[in-house]
User: Fold Amidohydrolase from Candidatus Polarisedimenticola svalbardensis.
Amino acid sequence: MPAQALTERIIGWRRSLHKIPELGFQEHQTSAFVESRLREIGLTEIRTGVARTGVVATIRAGAGGNDGAVLLRADMDALPVQEVEGREYGSETPGKMHACGHDGHMAMLLGAATLLHERKDSLKQDVVLCFQPAEEGAGGGREMVEGGELDLTGVSRAFAIHLWSLYPAGTVHTRPGPIMAAQDEFTAWFRGRGGHGAAPHNARDPIVAASLGVVALQTVVSRFVDPLSPAVATVGSMHGGSACNIIPEVTELIGTLRSFDPDVRLLLRHRVEEAFAGAARSAGCELEFEVRPGYPAVVNDAESATIAGSVAGRLFGKEKVFETPPLAASEDFAYFLQKVPGAFILLGAGNEERGITAPHHSPQFDIDESALPKGAELLAALAME
Assistant:
């Protein structure tokens, strides 16, 4: 059966999942839906409760020559975003939405499961279908890997596809080496001495200190990081004070650091703290600084990225395959690729003519569903390859 014959079914799965968004490690309805569909397809080797709410199914190779399994991964969780009104398949849970395409990822993997189950006698390697919870910051991928899932299933290579609304539907984008950034979060507390706004000389103003810190932060990347090594240091939140005439005791900055090289990642943490400490001292304040390590960089194995591009070119035409520049977003598929070779692939799902251009994590986010059977076919073909 060609993937196009599954189009209506795959879109139906995606829309059903879109209606029941659940946050990380809360994907109970989602897991039950996935398990039920896998059994309808005909799969029997299914485990639930993996990394709390994940689902893992295995399709055994029928053609011999098994040199380890190929893992195909789809993430499951939604986001705390209120979806725009008026969609016939919109979220039925207030304040939660599949605003990053994970509903489509699961639908594509269910489509690939259907194709691979039909073609299992031709499989040369076992295929592990991994429905992973909690990608959006909670580290479900890390929990799966640290729990020994790759060892248990004998995985020797891994692939994942992420729908990407900023690329035209049906185009395929990947690259060897780093494709997504490592991510860290920081909080800086500038502690001063409160006082009256009309007598600032009797206080030590943490708002001034934090403001100097924001300015100093701009020199970290521009003056301490090699211009050929991408890096980002951003303050996304600043809180201090409660009234126009009161100098507060504390002002808080919260931000994110993004990098691709491990040495640059360590440099950013060190230099940002130094910049803030200098700003605090210059304003007569003290600094408390905390870094919360996030996901590592997603680094594609060169051979796997080449395989992905070659297979996509054969399926859809070479003119549809592109080498993407590295993206500063982060992804916990990174943990899989630290353990086994593989590739992370972006599948275009935008359509400017239909107004499907909203970025990920936006209330307006949507996908061109014509990309879904293509994603299913590509996943299946990668496993067959």
Observations:
- The chain has two domains: 3-180+297-384, 182-293.
